[in-house]
Task: inverse folding
């Protein structure tokens, strides 16, 4: 399954899981709406109907008194009309599930109607006592039974309404709880899916990062814990990584072989030339004239210059090819600085230049560096400082701590470097326009080698210069350097300062 497919399925699954609580909430709302509509169309309508029935029953009672005391046909007609209205309303109660009290109400109304006619006839004939007797014994008891039937219907409706409301409340509460539980579970499951997706992406990326860091450190034998036959993009990347490391290892081997061959092929003839030149100077092959001796001296000096240039060039190439390694070991920092001061104090005295080493407080007693390489860097920087500083000038080496690192500043009061050329001084063979102020010409490789060694230690070498004022080189090195190949820090030596 490809990474894109995995992400798509994961996101769709999360979306579906988060929709479930919404569906549960919608279902609960629909059920609550149905219960509310049932209450409106059923119990609420029945309640209004019972209210109208009670009003009609009260009208029957009022009209019965009118028949008793005002025995006119109009009073009887009104009473019978009220009785018919009660009967019609009782018929409507059947539709709301109140058939039993409705039937009792209709029966009572029939009795009231019969008693009303008898009561009216007795009152109309002037038999008031008989009319009152009919009212007391037939009409009023029948009205009472109708009232009881109506009260029974009201109680039944109240109970049913209470049950319906309770059921709706329970359904709403249950739906709310179900939606909440669904939401919590959905969020948890979505979070687990998201975490699984993140882990499935983070682990291979971390493994690729580890592999690339190892390659950057010059270790081309590293392998990834990602099967190259995986069906997703990480499997393709793993296979490409293996091909890349194999090709880089082959290229590294070829470069190392080239350095070895070049070292042998170049140094050997140069040493032969130097050797035979020295034999000529010793007059082993016969006496030399003054002109011949001058030519032999020039040949020797140029041969030595060529040997030094080849040695420096091979040194840079060896680092760039990954063949240069650091011999990291504990170094007594104070002792190293003292030896540097003694070594260059003689040169300072010869050239009439003030020189001193300033060690600030808090310096570590022991650092873990390649002592020979760092001495080479500092020696190169100090040599350049003396080379470009005129008699009466000053050269100073200042050493201080800086964030668990050691900062060493080599400052001189020499000619300085033109600002437009300052960014290029660490390029191979580049020489600034201030060479006329130098005590002797250089090869243009010293600073390239110095930065190479500094970066191989995980440090930095920078320069700040003002033309006519002086130059300061700043070397910053960590106190503890791990033993590693130096090629990690030397890729910029070929062209970028």
Result:
């Amino acid at each position: 399954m490809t990474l894109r497919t995995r992400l798509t399925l994961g996101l769709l699954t999360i979306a579906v899981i988060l929709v479930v609580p919404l569906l549960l909430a919608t279902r609960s709302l629909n059920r609550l709406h149905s219960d509310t509509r049932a209450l409106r169309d059923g119990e609420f309508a029945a309640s209004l109907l019972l209210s109208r029935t009670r009003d009609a029953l009260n009208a029957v009672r009022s009209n019965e008194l009118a028949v008793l005391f005002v025995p006119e046909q109009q009073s009887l007609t009104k009473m019978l009309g009220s009785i018919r209205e009660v009967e019609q309303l009782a018929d409507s109660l059947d539709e709301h599930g109140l058939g039993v009290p409705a039937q009792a109400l209709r029966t009572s109304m029939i009795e009231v109607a019969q008693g009303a006619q008898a009561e009216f006839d007795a009152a109309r004939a002037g038999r008031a006592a008989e009319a009152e007797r009919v009212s007391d014994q037939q009409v009023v008891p029948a009205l009472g039974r109708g009232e009881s039937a109506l009260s029974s219907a009201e109680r039944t409706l109240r109970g049913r309404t209470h049950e319906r409301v309770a059921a709706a409340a329970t359904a709403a509460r249950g739906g709310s709880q179900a939606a909440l539980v669904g939401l919590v579970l959905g969020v948890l499951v979505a979070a687990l899916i998201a975490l699984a997706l993140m882990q499935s992406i983070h682990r291979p990326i971390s493994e690729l990062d580890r592999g690339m860091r190892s390659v950057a450190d010059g270790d081309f034998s590293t392998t990834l814990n990602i099967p190259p036959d995986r069906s997703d993009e990480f499997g393709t990347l793993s296979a490409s990584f293996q091909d890349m490391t194999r090709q880089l290892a082959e290229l590294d081997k070829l470069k190392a072989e080239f350095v070895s061959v070049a070292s042998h092929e170049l140094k050997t003839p140069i040493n032969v030339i130097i050797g035979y030149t020295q034999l000529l100077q010793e007059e082993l092959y016969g006496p030399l004239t003054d002109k011949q001796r001058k030519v032999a001296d020039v040949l020797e000096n140029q041969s030595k210059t060529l040997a030094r240039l080849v040695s420096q060039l091979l040194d840079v190439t060896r680092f760039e090819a990954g063949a240069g390694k650091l011999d990291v070991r504990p170094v007594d920092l104070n002792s190293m600085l003292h030896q540097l001061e003694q070594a260059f104090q003689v040169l300072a005295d010869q050239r009439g230049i003030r020189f001193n080493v300033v060690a600030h407080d808090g310096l570590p007693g022991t650092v873990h560096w390649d002592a020979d390489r760092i001495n080479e860097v500092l020696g190169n920087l100090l040599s350049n400082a003396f080379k470009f500083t005129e008699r009466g000038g000053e050269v100073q080496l200042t050493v201080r701590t800086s964030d668990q690192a050691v900062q060493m500043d080599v400052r001189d009061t020499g000619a300085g470097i033109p600002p437009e050329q300052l960014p290029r001084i660490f390029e191979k063979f580049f020489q600034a326009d201030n060479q006329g102020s130098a005590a002797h010409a250089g090869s243009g490789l010293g600073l390239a080698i110095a930065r190479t060694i500094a970066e191989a230690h995980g440090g930095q070498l920078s320069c700040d210069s003002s033309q006519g004022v002086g130059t300061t080189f700043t070397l910053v090195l960590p106190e503890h350097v791990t033993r590693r190949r130096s090629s990690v820090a030397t890729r910029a030596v070929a062209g970028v300062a």
About this structure: Residues 128-216 form the longest helix (89 residues).
